[in-house]
């Protein structure tokens, strides 16, 4: 636990070293981005391992509650007013419900499918955001290269589904569909935030809404689903839950929001293709998951699609 807190502090403190807005990514920002993508890729492994001591959906609820407590303390130390009336409560609750549904499906889906497969389907969300923004948000038109990225990712998902259908049972396909549904909810959450007054709220407050609602909903859902709950977790399961709470849901999100406030969002988003790559590799290296030729091809197609979707538009007159 102490090591996890030190890791979280290191991520935050490394981010605080620079405080001005910059037009280009520097070495520190690039290194932080790669580290964040690695942490997000490892999250699914941590969820899988922690299932040895915690039921999936309950685990997700504990993650949100733990991160909520840390975020609340962080906001109090910085004098942030999380409960000030600004007209975002209803929208915040909606974003929180979508966030809760997303992670309920991710955690439940991982009890059926592998880390390697789940992260490929989860990271279809950037493509769904691009389509939704094109249809719903003014000024967010999809360019030709983004459409090519969408097509590339669609082929990758189709290849991954076909690979799952060749497996001995349909368990993986059930989990794949659950995680794909989670990606839809992730995209919906992003569009709600981008298309409403939540976009003008502080990132800390938006994250607070999401953690608070999911922390309330997921333990109740776990009870209604008849999950076993906490089942004598060992040190490794506890460490994996602590990693999710302290490093991923708290520290990494704060570091990401810090980067978004200081560097161009398009440049930052271009790095997200690394997350499914790290996720697939960590599932294979740490859990011994099988990576077939088809799944490897699907991974490359999805990563290439993410890169194309987030590719920066050429400057006018260039």
Which outline best applies? Answer: globular
Which residues form runs of ≥5 with pLDDT under 50? Answer: 1-19
Strand residues, percent: under 5%
Instruction: Report the order of strands and helices.
Output: HHHHHHHHHHHHH
Task: Kindly give the count of domains.
Answer: 1
Average pLDDT figure: 85
Biggest sheet architecture: none
Number of strands: 0
- Count of runs of 4 or more consecutive helical residues: 13
Terminal CA distance: 52 Å
- Portion of residues within helices: over 70%
Protein name: EamA-like transporter family protein
Family: Belongs to the EamA transporter family.
Membrane topology: Multi-pass membrane protein
Subcellular location: Membrane
Descriptive overview:
By secondary structure, the chain is mainly α. The chain has one domain (31-309). The chain contains 13 helices and no strands. It has helices spanning 2-16, 27-50, 56-77, 89-109, 115-122, 125-136, 144-165, 171-194, 203-224, 235-262, 265-269, 274-287, 293-309. α2 packs across α12 (274-287) and α3 crosses α10 (235-262). The longest helix has 28 residues, at 235-262. The chain starts with a helix and ends in a 9-residue tail after the last helix.
